[in-house]
Specification:
It contains two helices and eleven strands, in the order E-E-H-E-E-E-E-E-E-H-E-E-E. It is mostly beta strands and about 110 residues long.
Length: about 110
């Protein structure tokens, strides 16, 4: 499944909007329903409807990821939170909003 995503270093989790999840869930393995409630940056509480764990490939660099599924209100489809910074060697140049990700054999550059 090919999806555009945003990097958000301030997000504690990675997330998928319910609108995207409804379109692709039949192609995903390892997803389950969720009864968790999540606190957003603005203090509001939203219910996660599902959780998906799987392999994500970012321009050829692979990483295992977990995404909470909830309604983003149209703000984004996929959000890569700061957990990816822990699993990948990642550098975010905030002034230009360019992200460089490195694995054992290569580095890739992304414009956020």
């Amino acid at each position: 499944v090919r999806i555009r995503a945003l990097f958000d270093d301030g997000a504690m989790i990675s997330a998928m909007c319910t609108s995207i999840f409804k379109k692709i869930k039949h192609q995903l393995h390892n997803w389950s329903e969720s009864d968790r409630h999540l606190r957003m940056a603005n203090g509001s509480i939203v219910k996660a409807v599902a959780k998906w764990m799987g392999m994500v490939r970012i321009k050829g660099i692979k990483t295992q990821s977990t995404f909470k599924v909830f309604n983003s209100g149209g703000s984004w489809g996929f959000l890569l939170g700061n957990q990816h910074s822990k699993h990948l060697q990642q550098f975010h140049e905030y002034e230009t909003d360019i992200i460089t990700i490195t694995d054992e054999s290569r580095a890739i550059t992304l414009e956020n």
